[in-house]
């Protein structure tokens, strides 16, 4: 019997989604989106794979969704996230799968973004009896631990009242995302890319009594795809973090809800290991951006004249059905679905929708 109804899942349903993935030994892809086209491609892929999915917006993705024409960029970041969330709330159930709605990295300068999303979320909660988003993320991993956990505790208190979950980050994910972060220096000392299990324990002790949260722990994962360098994926860090908390607090197995950032281009066996250690969410952005653009590149290369002339100057052939943006954007969506088929397969979530 179906455990959950199709559509956006929040509150206890979200907890069920996370817990079932962990006990079932699979994870959900978390896909960054920035337009209705990319959102719909994710929904289509999830439906096709009979899999539940996580859709998320970075601040830049949200701003793009609202439109670059809005002069006040901060306002656009909030409005765009709200608009995309409403789009997904309306459409998700018609695709027949569960969709968790997240926002991605918010560093110290973006704390006001999260607070303003919560203002919208509180109004939405009053009207609908459920939150607008399933989870927000605070990434204060570049700040001192005390500030990181203090802010996470403050925001989680506010979110817990709405039945929302908070994603935090401990240790620095390498690479660049949304213009934040640095290009990888592959010859540098990269010890800061590995989270200490003691830090995870500290976060658990500080936050677990307040509300539901997940941890993006760094185990050599990087944002983006780079040529193989000296950053080695060490998913055993995740295993050790779980073990430390199990032992200290006599919890059941895998007490932490873990998130794998920078899933693009990762070795398949390391993905499997990470999932077996309690990763329920793997972020995948770069590979899907490439899949989307790759198809457009192919379309333009195959139909070059349609992007130069409305009517062929030699043959008189009209090119409308080639330069209509729906044509090449559709091929982009289709290629994004193909790459997502692989992600559902890698993460073991194909055919596992809780709506089945
Ligand atoms: Zn990330």
- Bound ligands, each once: zinc ion
In order across it, which strands form the biggest sheet? Answer: 1-4-3-2-12-11-9-6-5
Q: Roughly what fraction of the amino acids lie in strands?
A: 5-15%
Give the overall form: globular
Q: What value does the average pLDDT take?
A: 93
Number of helices: 12
* Biggest sheet statistics: 9 strands, parallel
Q: What's the β-strand tally?
A: 12
Question: What radius of gyration results from the CA coordinates?
Answer: 21 Å
Structural class by secondary-structure content: alpha/beta
Key structural traits:
356 residues, TIM Barrel, three-stranded mixed sheet, 12 helices, 12 strands, globular, binds zinc ion
What would you say this structure looks like, in words?
This protein has 356 residues and is of the alpha/beta class. The chain has one domain (7-347): Aldolase class I (TIM Barrel). The chain has twelve helices and twelve strands. It has helices spanning 11-24, 36-48, 59-66, 73-91, 111-128, 145-160, 197-207, 236-249, 268-276, 286-302, 320-323, 325-347, and strands at residues 7-8, 28-32, 53-57, 98-103, 135-138, 165-170, 174-177, 180-181, 213-217, 222-223, 258-260, 279-284. The protein has a nine-stranded parallel beta sheet. Helix 9 (268-276) links the parallel strand 11 (258-260) and strand 12. Helix 2 (36-48) packs across helix 12 (325-347), helix 7 packs across helix 8 and helix 10 (286-302) runs antiparallel to helix 12 (325-347). It starts with 6 loop residues before the first strand and ends in a 9-residue tail after the last helix. Bound molecules: zinc ion (ZN). Zinc ion binds next to loops. The site of zinc ion has 6 residues, from loops.
């Amino acid at each position: 019997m179906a455990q959950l109804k199709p559509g956006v899942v929040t509150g206890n349903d979200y907890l069920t989604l996370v817990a079932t993935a962990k006990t079932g030994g699979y994870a959900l892809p978390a896909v960054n989106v920035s337009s209705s086209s990319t959102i719909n491609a994710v929904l289509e892929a999830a439906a096709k794979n009979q899999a539940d999915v996580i859709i998320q917006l970075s601040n830049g993705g949200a701003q793009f969704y609202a439109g670059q024409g809005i002069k006040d960029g901060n306002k656009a970041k909030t409005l765009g996230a709200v608009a995309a969330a409403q789009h997904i709330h309306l459409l998700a159930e018609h695709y027949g799968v569960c969709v968790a709605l997240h926002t991605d990295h918010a560093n110290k300068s973006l704390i006001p973004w999260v607070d303003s999303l919560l203002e919208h979320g509180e109004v939405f909660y009053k009207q609908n009896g459920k939150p607008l988003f399933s989870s927000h993320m605070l990434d204060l991993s570049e700040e001192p631990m005390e500030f990181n956990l203090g802010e996470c505790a403050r925001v989680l208190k506010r979110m817990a009242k709405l039945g929302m979950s908070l994603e935090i980050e401990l240790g620095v994910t390498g690479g660049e995302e949304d213009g934040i972060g640095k290009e990888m220096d592959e010859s540098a000392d990269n010890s800061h890319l590995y989270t200490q299990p003691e830090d995870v324990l500290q976060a658990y002790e500080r936050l677990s009594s307040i509300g539901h949260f997940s941890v993006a722990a760094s185990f050599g994962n990087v944002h983006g795809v780079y040529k193989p360098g000296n950053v080695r994926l060490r998913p055993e860090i995740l295993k050790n973090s779980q073990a430390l908390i199990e032992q200290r607090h006599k919890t059941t197995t895998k007490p932490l809800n873990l998130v794998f950032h920078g899933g693009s281009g990762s070795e398949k066996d390391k993905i499997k290991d990470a999932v077996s250690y309690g990763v329920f969410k793997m972020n995948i952005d770069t590979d899907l951006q490439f899949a989307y653009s790759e198809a457009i590149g192919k379309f333009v290369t195959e139909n070059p004249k349609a992007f130069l002339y409305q009517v062929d100057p030699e043959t008189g052939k009209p090119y409308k059905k080639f330069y209509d943006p729906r044509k090449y954007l559709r091929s982009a969506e289709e290629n994004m679905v193909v790459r997502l088929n692989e992600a559902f397969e890698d993460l073991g979530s194909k055919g596992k929708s809780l709506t089945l």
